[in-house]
Amino acid sequence: MSKKTIMLICSAGMSTSLLVTKMQKAATEKSLDVDIFAVAASDADNQIASKTIDAVLLGPQVRFMQKQMEEKLTPKSIPLAVINMADYGTMNGENVLNNALKLMEGE
Q1: DSSP of the chain
Q2: Which of 26, 35, 88, 97 is the most exposed place for a label (fewest CB within 10 A)?
Q3: Which residues are catalytic?
């Protein structure tokens, strides 16, 4: 698998940074080559325009943005999902990473 880029969006970009760390740890344990980063909702458009992104995950607190983001991402064929609230609450990086990988495979 070539290197994949996963972008997480949250309201301020802070709470998701711990989840990113846990996802990166899970990716390292699986020997996966992924770039995972978090951005504030206000910076999401800039990142989408300037980077090659393979999947976008919305934090539960910004799930209201799902339709708006789908309109931006669908023409670029970038899959989008809302992070499971239980996985987010427990900072289960492995589950969130696995869901992102399935999303990129089109499952």
Answers
A1: ---EEEEEEESSSSHHHHHHHHHHHHHHHTT--EEEEEEEGGGHHHHHHHS--SEEEE-GGGGGGHHHHHHHHGGGT--EEEPPHHHHHTT-HHHHHHHHHHHHHT-
A2: 35
A3: 10
pLDDT tens track for 82-103: 999 999 999 999 999 999 999 9
CATH number at residue 68: 3.40.50.2300
Give CA–CA dist 91/18, Å, rounded. 7
The two three-digit tokens of residue 8, written as one number: 């997480």
> Could you read off the pLDDT of 44-63 as tens digits, one per residue?
999 999 999 999 999 999 99
Range of the domain at 90: 4-105
Q: How many domains does the chain have?
A: 1
